[in-house]
Specification:
The protein contains eight helices and nine strands. The chain is of the alpha/beta class and 195 residues long. 39% of the residues are buried.
């Protein structure tokens, strides 16, 4: 469930950064974890995808390969490790031994969760790599009721994080606007860590 332009941007970023660990917050059906793992394999990157959620990847009637659910494929992929207790309980000892780390937050999109994940994971991203916050456009794509429950959502967390200066990140506008101004669901969400 990704915007096609963002799928291409992920290919570009993974090729450019060559992470040996991708941490994904928010698994849902497991499709993007599988996509990231397959990209790593295709690009000859030896590494892992750690996908974090609060439940096992869901099955959906419309997302299937012959006789196998996408979630099951993701769980069985040798490059994917699934963590089902949420980002708060992910043990940072799991990153030991990895040299280049990229983080993608496609979790709840609630401000406090996005901020909490940024506080926890921003320090482990490798200089020159990315912390990508998905769905900064939630205000435009969600119903007013849903948007109201997000407390300002990803954009509020992004603005506060970048302006705090706690970590040397900047919004990579080249990636955000690669296909045209705001032609991404990850509005201002391509956060690059300075070298």
């Amino acid at each position: 469930m990704k915007f096609p332009f963002d799928l291409v941007l992920y290919q570009m970023i993974i090729h450019e950064v060559r992470p040996d660990l991708i941490i994904e917050i928010g698994t849902l059906y497991g499709g993007s974890a599988l996509y990231f793992a397959d990209l790593m394999t295709t690009m000859g990157i030896d590494g892992e995808v750690h996908t974090i959620d609060i439940e096992v990847p869901k099955e959906e009637e419309n997302i299937r390969t012959p006789n196998v659910e996408v979630g099951q494929l993701a769980l069985d992929h040798p490059k994917i490790k699934f963590f089902k207790e949420g980002y708060e309980k992910y043990d940072l000892k799991n990153i030991e031994g990895f040299k280049t780390i990229l983080v993608i937050d496609d979790g709840s999109h609630i401000y406090k969760d996005v901020k909490g994940a940024l506080d926890k994971f921003a320090g482990i991203v490798t200089p020159g790599s990315y912390y990508i916050v998905e769905d900064g456009n939630a205000e435009e794509t969600c119903s007013p009721y849903v948007w109201g429950t997000l407390e300002g959502g990803p954009l509020r967390a992004i603005y506060e994080f970048v302006s705090s200066g706690k970590y040397p990140y900047y919004i990579d506008l080249h990636k955000c606007d690669f296909f045209g101004i705001d032609s991404t669901y990850n509005t201002y969400g391509y956060l690059k860590k300075a070298r």
